Structure formats: structure tokens, C-alpha cells
Amino acid sequence: MDDSSLNQVLEQQTNTCKCTIHNVNHNSYAAGPLTKFSRRFGVSNSMESFNSTEIGFKLAHSVLKALGIVTKYNNTNEEKESIPVFTMNLKAQFRMPNGHYYFQCKTAHFDTNKCIQLVTDVGGDVDKIIPNMLQRYTSVYVNKETGQIESIMYLGTTPIANNNLSSLVGVPASYCNNMIGRYQEGLVKDFIEFFSENWAMCLFCDQFDAVRIQITFANPI
After folding, report:
1. Residue 211 pLDDT class (50, 70, 90 cuts)
2. pLDDT tens-digit profile of 22-33?
3. Which among 159, 163, 164, 160 has a CA at the least distance from the CA of 176?
4. CA 208, CA 220: separation in Å to the nearest integer?
5. pLDDT digit string (tens) for 68-86?
6. How far is the CA of 79 from the CAs of 16, 67, 76, 141, in angstroms?
7. Spatial strand order in the sheet of 90-95
8. CA dihedral 183, 185, 189, 194 (to 10 degrees)
9. Rounded Cα gap, residues 88 and 131, in angstroms
10. Domain annotation for the chain: domains and CATH numbers
């Protein structure tokens, strides 16, 4: 990574990270699934509840700040320490002992109580292994207020395009070809097939987010 790339990353992280990730010994830093933030910040989840890449950025920022490398990017005013704000999506994927594939991607502040759940179940009970039968259970959570997709979960007998589904989390459901309306009309039988149709290809383009932001600012509500 060259100096300009490093500077860009540090500037982005400085805006969100105001907490040094160390214990009472300021020379000891830690991050990972077994660690939690200090009790002086109140009740907090363990770090395994957040995106590991984002945790790594926060930890690196804290260490570089302690070494004086990122001092010039910080505000001159003394800031009160607080738990960093995490915004990146969380993703988990693995193959189960019975051969089934599991995948879930969710937003950093996903709350089932604030969402409606849409489910497609192909091939019956996925808990039962039926040889040579396609089985897919897919669950999509949509926020009731914002209308954005908060979580996608899949359990099935075949591997899927996980990265494509991950890119849909955080996107307004209205972008997905009237997904909710079609689902309520019984026209969506399998979300994996639905998201594999031609109309969805543009959503998976690496430039889609940039275009979406441009459209949003060009046409404010």
C-alpha cells in the first residue's frame, strides 16, 4: 500500500474511531471474538458481534495513533473516548457436517423486531437429508420503516453466489423488482432463483453503489 492509499484509509477511520482498543495497560492492545470493551462504557457486545475487517481497522488506527503516526489527522480538540461506531455488514458462511451450505449477511444493527420476514422454502424440511433433492430455505428481512434489506439467510443443499447476495444487504427492497409485492402475490417461490434473474445483474455491479448515491443526491426527496 502506497502513502496516498494509507493516508486515505487513515482519514476515513479517524472520523469514526475515537476509542483506543487497549486494556488498563496502554501498551497492550487486543481485538477479536473473545474480547469486549471496557465496562466503563456500559453494556456492550463482544467484538465477534461486529465485522472483523472493521475491527481490524479500528485496532490498527489505535496502534498507529499511539505511535504518533496518525496524529496529524486528528482534531486538535481533546475527544472523549467512546465505543467506536461500527457500520459494516456481518457475514457468516460455512458447510455443515450434513453437507448443507449455510450463509447469512446482515447489517451491523440488524433487529428482527423492526423487520418483516419473507421466506421461501424449496424441497421441504431442510433438517431432513433427502438424496438427490434440491432443498433451499431462504429468509429475507426488510426493515419496516426504511424499507431496506437488513438480512439474507440461506440454508440449502447447493452452493450459492454469496457475494452477490451480500451486496443486496443494505439496499432498498424497492430496487429488487417489486420483491415484496411479488412475494405477497405468491409469485416468488425461490429467492435464490429470483435474485438470479437478468434484472438483478445490475445490482451486483461493483459500480452500482456509486451510481445509486449519485441518483439519490440528484433526486432528493
Report:
1. confident
2. 555 555 666 666
3. 164
4. 18
5. 776 544 544 445 566 677 7
6. 12, 18, 9, 37
7. 90-95, 101-106, 149-156, 136-143, 115-122
8. -50
9. 38
10. 3-73 (no CATH), 90-218 (3.30.390)
